[in-house]
Amino acid sequence: MDKGYEKEGFVTISIKASVAKKFRKYSKEISKSHSMTLLLMLEFFEHNGIAPTEDFGPRMQTLETLIKKRINGVIAILKDIEKTQTKPTTGMLMALLEPPEKKPLLLEKKQFPDKENY
């Protein structure tokens, strides 16, 4: 018995034999009873705001295109952040953390007058 619907009575709905056969087969795959299968299907359509007659072809393609555009936008933002913020900051930190190069000290040469000329 279906939980929550034990005290409800049954009502007859007339449908074509081929449709009933297909529905029974589908119902066995989905849930325990025909009532619960039909209820799940109705709730799915109501929750998602769609009708069984709607065509999903263009919608799914449009959604896929929109997602790809958004992903490309995110990639562009990340590349810009890397180029303008991460790499320069990393370069500055590396310059601060590296030991300084030892350069020879430059000494000024003082020119003394020659002693011979005096």
From TrEMBL:
<protein>
    <submittedName>
        <fullName>BfmA/BtgA family mobilization protein</fullName>
    </submittedName>
</protein>
<dbReference type="InterPro" id="IPR048012">
    <property type="entry name" value="BfmA-like_N"/>
</dbReference>
